[in-house]
Amino acid sequence: MTKITISTIKQKIEQLLISANFILPEDILEKVKSSLKIETNKNAKLILKMIIENAQIAKKEMLPLCQDCGNVYVNIGVGKNVCIMNDSINDSVNDSVNDSINQSINDRINDNTNDSDIDSLNIASNTYDSINNINNVNVINNNFSLIKNNLSNTANISFSDLNNAINEAVLKVYKNYYLRKSIVSDCLYQRKNTNSNTPAMIFIEYLNINGIKIEVNLKGGGSENCSWLYMLNPSVTEDEVIKIVLKLIKEYASKACPPLIVGIGIGGSAVKAVLLAKKAVFRNLTLRNSDKNYFNLENKLLQAINNTGVGPQGLGGKTTALACNIEHAPCHMATLPFAVFFGCHSTRRAETVI
Question: Is-above-0.85 flag for pTM?
């Protein structure tokens, strides 16, 4: 069993938030550089050079890649045999063991226990593993249930514990590094800034890995506004899907600070398709879809998007998008959910496994 404390998760999230805000992912930076080599449009070349320079300055001077420091998405992937614990568990359990042993020793001494009996009470260390040996120490059998209950009560955490820790990490980083706070508490009426960039959007899933995978994604308002969900007729063809995407590119690409990363989710349900599109837009650009059909569709779409001539910042050129990523899932035979997310040239992300 791998034991990971909430404070460890919180600390890692703080580090990832700092990295995501100041360091453009290497795969995106390399794609911008390679696009610059083949770009022929004067304005496009100038803008691509500025994106590269901006990334260099942001990393060196610890300045935000973009003035819009974005919505914070936090994805927690819990691996097999992982226990997420409150930070007080070590002290609590050790105190319980020590108190129980000391009390038992005192009781036996008062009952005229000889030295050899007292020696038999020694336990190698006050760790979790030592609890397994307590049953072998007859003198504290009566206290074992108390220790187990204490351990159970201390180890159990609620989602709100983890949720609070994540939001505390966001608040700390955005405050300490003077990052723009953009979240309002009421979406429709008062729209008052929370002054903390919280709450973050938190997603938890179970993965077949060792440990816990943590991903931090940042998405500014411009690209968030370029997000769509369609419930298509199941008879829709590949060509019709391409037409839908190209229409969105021509009408909205310049609003999302191109060159873009186009994330597409196909299948599942209305809810699932949106989550797939989110996953796609934040996917590393070196990773391509493993399914041959969707791999080919990614390539067709990227070529078609760049042939529109929208270009960097909408000023013309070959580089309207750096990548088109597709994630797909099975769906109901009467439906075809289809979601599209635009990510800007500073689609920010960072991840780690603990």
Answer: no
